[in-house]
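User: Hey, quick favor. My workstation is busy. Could you predict this chain's structure for me?
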Amino acid sequence: MPWANFPIIGAIAVFTGSWFKRWTAVLISLLTLLISDIAINLGVYGGKYGVMHGGWWWIYTIFFLIVIVDWLIMRKVTVSRFIIASVVSSLMHWLLSDFMLWINGSTDLRTLKPLNRDIDGLVQCYVQGIPFLRNYLVGTLVYGAIMFGIFEWIKRSNPGWLAKKEYARHV
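Assistant: No problem, here it is.
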């Protein structure tokens, strides 16, 4: 599946980091991730791997960091900052999650044996993750453009709407 892992969660992290106060952004992003994990683990896999996957706390820590970094980048909402935040969060996700995979003994897809516990094994782990990096970045950019576009349309259609929201970051 060349386009597997085309997630919306990266766009949610950038969007919430842009338009919500810091802890609201973290809460929305992590709750979204939790709901999707439970739905996938129970609905798609029928609970075969339990309610949560084994490395869930790594992933949630990574997303916590991503939302905070996105929140810092998106102090002012612009197209260029959206692109920068999307690239930075995608790179963070790739580097940190693939490092976690390597630390926990992932498989070398060339040999179907465990990756070496040296720099060559780490590099191979990152190389294997490049298709997921690409898809994560494209998903973040595409879904993010849709989310920001709809939000801008709502703001323009309802002037003053955002000023009434106490959880909003930019009023």
